[in-house]
Amino acid sequence: MSRAPATLTLDAARQALEDMSRRARLMIDTANDAVLTIDEASIVVDWNRTAERMFGWTREEAVGQVLTELIVPHEHRAAHHHGLERYLRDRTPGILNRRVETTALHRSGRVFDIELSVWPVEAGAGFTFSAFIRDISERRAGEAALRASEEKYRLVVENAYEGICVSQDGMLKYANPRALELTQRSLDDAMSTPSSRWSTPTTARAYTETTCGACAASRWSRSTSSVR
Q1: pLDDT at position 213
Q2: In the chain, what are the domain boundaries?
Q3: Are 182 and 221 a contacting pair, CB within 8 Å?
Q4: d(C-alpha 48, C-alpha 27), whole Å
Q5: Average per-residue pLDDT in the chain?
Q6: Which residues in the chain show pLDDT less than 70?
Q7: pTM of the model
Q8: SS3 for 157?
Q9: Architecture of the domain delimited by 31-139
Q10: How far apart (Å, rounded) are the C-alpha atoms in residues 45 and 129?
Q11: In whole angstroms, what is the distance from residue 26 CA to residue 48 CA?
Q12: E strands within 3-56?
């Protein structure tokens, strides 16, 4: 009879542990990021549903396989194994416990951009390594498109026949080559001159000035009149 309370307590602890495990499994399986775990030999021991969608391998196919053979591009495989061996040898962290951006390999052979964070977990006499992985290929594509658009706009402005300048709080922030030519100023001189004094006897403002907050953009062209 004296053992009954201890037995009930042990059963309750086991039930609580099982409940916690189920909740953890549900959280991992429904995470927006791919979550996977490998052992010290880089063998996959866990693989969530997002990892299935992201990399094209089912959990049944991935578990038991060497991670590098599944999702690591060929040019990064040696570095992956070297970093793992170095951590196990002398605890050099490498990319562990921080976010890094790199590339990953899909089952189809497509290489795409990812952000990942990896952390080690001591398990008995060894370690496992778990990772959260996020597909950032759309973000990278958007950034590349923005850079291309900015470069296209810069080339248009730099080669425009009209002088184009941008001022903020009464001081020049940008002037294209044509604006410097029309105002007969060097870039250093222009940047130190209040925008209200941006005229010479041989130049005039020929277009309207548009204002947005404290910034103003102006277009200039040569005129026969003079502005002082």
Answers
A1: 38
A2: 31-139, 160-222
A3: yes
A4: 10
A5: 80
A6: 1-8, 12-30, 195-228
A7: 0.61
A8: helix
A9: 2-Layer Sandwich (3.30)
A10: 10
A11: 10
A12: 34-38, 44-47
